[in-house]
Amino acid sequence: MNPSYNNSCHPTLSKEPIPACPYVSVIMAVKNEEKYIGKCLDGFASQTYSKDKFELVIASGSTDDTNRIIAQFQKSGSLNIILLENPTTRTADGLNLALAAASGDVLAHFIGHAYPDSCYLEGLLAAMNSAGMLLTAPKVNPLSFSKSALGNAIALALTSPFSVGKNSYNRVKPAYLHYSHWPLFPRHLAQKLGKFKHYTRGEDYEYFERAATLGARVYFCPSVNCYYYCRESFQEIFKIYYIMGRYRLILFFDTGPCLRFRHLVPLLGVSVIFTFPLFHQQLFYIYLIILVSYIIINIFFAYKVSSTKKLTQVLLISCSFLTIHISNGLGMVTGLIFDGFRILTGKIFTK
User: Fold this and answer.
1) What is the pLDDT of residue 244?
2) What DSSP string runs through 119-156?
3) Is the pLDDT of residue 4 over 60?
4) What b/e readout covers 9-30, taking b as 16+ CB neighbours within 10 angstroms?
5) Residue 111 near residue 32 (C-beta atoms within 8 A)
6) CA nearest 103: which of 14, 21, 27?
7) 8 A C-beta contact, residue 174 and residue 180
């Protein structure tokens, strides 16, 4: 990390003046978040930042009770909420609708199955002003909504760099990053970036990686917290990390910076696990050493993040690691096979 880094020094991203107490628009695209949206809105209703200085612009493609819950908060007057209909239900379309309707000097990206600390907006704005940064982002703390044994184990697994690398789930020190979850950013940066593009997964990654290509970095603020309700079954985390791996290459060839070595580790691991025994029978013992080493490292990190240190929880965390690694690696293999031709011929496009 370079302590002297400052976005305002970049010639194409000169820091335009922002009011001392700017009006903030929190933009969200939600779909069927009835379990979580009340907690999310409660978090914003309890902000220390003045209620007349921010709004929530929510584009919803929901068919459950999400809209009714949002309407209750609107009616109560506890929050200034603009509720928009997102007929396509696609995340990028919802975020673009919210962007167009937002009136804030500063924008904040957020999601429906998370909630902020009471000092969330005030803390990120203070960091933006004191650090002279264009983007500031919080520490994200994974939680289990059901508080089941497996849900808690998956949440704990996500806090380890062994599962998803070093990111805003597990960093503890301030850092300047290419990307971090749900940053605050000024309107003039949004105008430079334009619209969110539609991807099956990772619209926010691509959008803020675009900012990185302009020279912007995100200032990660571990003292500002929000809380994310993670998936709570092996099937759900397999699906989500498979999709992330499947479309990571498309994001990479669209943006460049979004693919890093840590993203390739699951791909390399899956390649070794599934191809080594087929083509290198004579090196079986090397394969066995690699496999045993992985198991030992896996269990070590599972024990390290375990809150109880009990065998059952350690094994559940260990299985969560394995599920994340295999699903992400298989997704990247699938992406190479099915998207390889389009990537090599330069025919990547978004609808």
Assistant:
1) 83
2) THHHHHHHHHHHHT-SEEEEEEEEE-SS--HHHHHHHH
3) no
4) eeeebebeebeeebbbbbbbbb
5) no
6) 27
7) no
In which residue are the tokens 């479309």 written?
247
CA within 13 Å, CB half, 204: 18
Spatial distance between the Cα atoms of 287 and 284, rounded to a whole number of angstroms: 5
Domains and CATH numbers, the chain: 7-231 (3.90.550.10), 253-344 (no CATH)
pLDDT tens across 277-304, in order? Answer: 555 566 677 777 778 888 999 999 999 9
Phi (first) and psi of residue 80, to 5 degrees:
-90, 105
Report the greatest alpha carbon distance in the chain: 71
Which pTM does this prediction carry? 0.84
SS3 225: strand
Given a cut of 60, whether residue 7 has pLDDT beyond it is no
Rg (CA), the chain: 21
Burial bucket for residue 35 (CB in 10 Å: 0-12, 13-18, 19+): middle
